[in-house]
Amino acid sequence: MSIENERKLLADVGRRIRAIRAEQSLNLDQLARLTGISAPALSLIETGKRDARLTTLAKIAAALRVSLSALMDDTSPGPDTKTKDAPQGYDLGDYL
């Protein structure tokens, strides 16, 4: 995954967290109390400046009463769906 794609993923997940939090009328301090994650750390996650661990995202999802998958992009194709531009196979030459 390229650095640009990583940044976009972090920003997208952060936007979803912020949107769900706002829908539930929670501020950062309230979500911090519910998750045990500091408000500044949550802010960095919401702005895409911090790469949250899976366990951190699970805590956030539980506190917001949504599934972990709700924080991820659910419009991406599943493993059985191929896009026309998807490369076929893997090139592991750089890793050997």
TrEMBL record:
It comes from the Bacteria. SUPFAM superfamilies: lambda repressor-like DNA-binding domains. One of its GO terms (cellular component) is cytosol. Residues 71-96 are annotated as: Disordered. Coiled coil: none annotated. The keyword DNA-binding applies. Residues 17-71 form the HTH cro/C1-type domain. Gene3D superfamilies: lambda repressor-like DNA-binding domains. PROSITE patterns: HTH_CROC1. One of its GO terms (molecular function) is DNA binding. The keyword DNA-binding applies. Keywords: DNA-binding. PANTHER family: HTH-TYPE TRANSCRIPTIONAL REGULATOR, METHYLPHOSPHONATE SYNTHASE. This is HTH-type transcriptional repressor RghR. The lineage of its organism: Bacteria, Pseudomonadati, Pseudomonadota, Alphaproteobacteria, Rhodobacterales.
